[in-house]
């Protein structure tokens, strides 16, 4: 028997990264391994995440809005942000979701579309994890088709009055501020809604079998009165929220590979230790074929993520390229998680190992930030010129 290689050696992934990127990746990996990994199974089982405490620790680590410039944000590259997402999701998709929604959706929406006052008021506290944000786009009847939204904002003198319901909103019940997208006479506009505004409530959604270490909520807006200054001045139409989605989808392209890597490392280690029919499970050809096929998909997904990271850092990445990464990497990650589960046999269904937790989480990741079908249609439209959503 020879000494086994690590998964990253197979594709020599580190040769594509610079020293700073490797240092950021390793710092995030150490923090999640020391601080989160020992507890994540319990948090998942109890469906209880100490999100406020964790947000402050993640803020101190510098990962909240880490790819944004100024206002207390770290101003790192997109690739470095992606590598951080990979490590966060290697422990649990719910932790990456906390960071994605904070940095790529709520903070990005304000950073990209907000007034100077909105940025000064919210971004430094959000970067530090002292204020938590959520992003309300999806509604009970409009998920894949947010353009149909019914939540509305009407003028009353200088004020805006918002009514409607948002659904499946990550961080909703723990948020200090919600970025809410609503229909106005001037098309879809975004609003910065402090969570203590009268008429705003965020009941938590219970009984999830996926993303249990993540808070998911409904947002209810009943005559929520806001000053004129609450509107995001630079977002006009559906391109406002959809532009934010590109950011979060980008993080998922890396993140999904983190979950897959954690499953595959667990399965390889388990197969080496487990004896079946008097020898190591790792020594059977069928097991090796599974491991080889999964390692190939993992490496290809990581290469694609880094390539898209470089395009994003060059400012040239296009939405259909982000869709390509999200579609492929989440679809392959969930296949890897399910295949790894078979290698662990019955042990694979328990929370003693991370695999079933990742597999269940990836069901949500497959659906949120655009379902696989939506991304197929985005790519299909780009390649054929034909719109097939309607
Ligand atoms: P369509 O006519 O295609 O576009 C309307 C306007 O938006 C522009 N646009 C984009 N802009 C930036 N980035 C993108 N990715 C964009 N896609 C479209 C477009 O150019 C147009 O601009 P303009 O100026 O001409 O008005 O709109 P459509 O109604 O046909 O919809 C297209 C479709 C289906 C692709 C879109 O609705 C879509 O992406 N649906 C999926 C919805 C979705 O992904 N929701 C996610 C909610 S947030 C979430 O899930 C958080 S999960 C937690 C976590 O991340 O961890
Ligand atoms: P639907 O749109 O009803 O889709 C149902 C099925 O129909 C899917 O398979 C879909 O692919 C398919 N379908 C839809 N349209 C077509 C078509 N044209 N052709 C073929 N098939 C089609 N949203 C937020 O705004 N903010 C959040 O923070 C957030 N966090 C989330 C957290 C979790 C854990 C989950 C599960 C969801 C979250 N979402 C959030 C919502 C998420 O973005 C939506 O669930 C997603 O966009 C899909 O919408 P839907 O669930 O209504 O499914």
UniProtKB/TrEMBL annotation:
Record InterPro entries: Acyl-CoA_Oxase/DH_mid-dom (IPR006091), Acyl-CoA_Oxase/DH_mid-dom_sf (IPR046373), AcylCo_DH-like_C (IPR036250), AcylCo_DH/oxidase_C (IPR009075), AcylCoA_DH/ox_N (IPR013786), AcylCoA_DH/ox_N_sf (IPR037069), AcylCoA_DH/oxidase_NM_dom_sf (IPR009100), Glutaryl-CoA_DH_mitochondrial (IPR052033)
Domain Acyl-CoA dehydrogenase/oxidase C-terminal: 236-383
Annotated ranges, domain Acyl-CoA dehydrogenase/oxidase N-terminal: 19-130
Keyword Oxidoreductase applies: yes
Flavoprotein is among the record's keywords: yes
Cofactor(s) the protein requires to work: FAD
GO molecular function: fatty-acyl-CoA binding; flavin adenine dinucleotide binding; glutaryl-CoA dehydrogenase activity
PANTHER family linked: GLUTARYL-COA DEHYDROGENASE, MITOCHONDRIAL
Protein name according to UniProt: Probable glutaryl-CoA dehydrogenase
């Amino acid at each position: 028997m020879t000494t086994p290689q690590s998964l990253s050696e197979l594709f020599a992934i580190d040769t594509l990264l610079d020293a700073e990127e490797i240092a950021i990746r390793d710092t995030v990996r150490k923090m999640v391994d020391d601080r989160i990994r020992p507890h994540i199974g319990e948090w998942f089982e109890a469906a209880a995440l100490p999100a406020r405490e964790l947000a402050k620790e993640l803020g101190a680590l510098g990962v909240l809005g880490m790819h944004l410039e100024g206002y207390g944000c770290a101003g790192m590259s997109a690739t470095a942000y992606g590598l951080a997402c990979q490590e966060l999701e290697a422990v649990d998709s719910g932790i990456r979701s906390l960071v994605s929604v904070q940095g790529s959706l709520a903070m990005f929406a304000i950073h990209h579309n907000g007034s100077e006052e909105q940025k000064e008021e919210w971004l430094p506290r959000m970067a530090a994890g002292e204020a938590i944000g959520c992003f309300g786009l999806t509604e009970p009847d409009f998920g894949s088709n947010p353009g149909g939204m019914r939540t509305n904002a009407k003028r009353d003198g200088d004020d805006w009055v918002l009514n409607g319901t948002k659904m499946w909103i990550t961080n909703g019940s723990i948020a200090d501020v919600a970025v809410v997208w609503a229909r106005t006479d001037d098309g879809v506009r975004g609003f910065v809604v402090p969570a203590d505004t009268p008429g705003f409530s965020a009941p938590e959604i219970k009984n999830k079998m996926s993303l249990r270490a993540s808070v998911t909520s409904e947002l209810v807006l009943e005559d929520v009165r806001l000053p004129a200054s609450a509107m995001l001045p630079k977002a006009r139409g559906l391109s406002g929220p959809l532009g934010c989605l590109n950011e979060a989808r980008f993080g998922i392209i890396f993140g999904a590979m983190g979950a897959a890597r954690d499953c595959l490392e667990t399965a390889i280690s388990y197969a080496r230790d487990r004896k079946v029919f008097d020898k190591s499970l790792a020594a059977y050809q069928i097991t090796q074929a599974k491991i080889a096929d999964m390692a190939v998909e993992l490496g290809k997904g990581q290469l694609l993520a880094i390539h898209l990271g470089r395009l994003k850092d060059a400012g040239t990445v296009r939405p259909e390229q982000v869709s390509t990464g999200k579609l492929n990497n989440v679809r392959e990650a969930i296949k890897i998680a399910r295949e790894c589960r078979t290698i662990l046999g019955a042990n694979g269904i328990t929370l003693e190992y991370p695999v079933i937790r990742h597999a269940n989480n990836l069901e949500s990741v497959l659906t949120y930030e655009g379902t696989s079908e939506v991304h197929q249609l985005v790519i299909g439209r780009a390649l054929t010129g034909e719109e097939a959503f309607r």
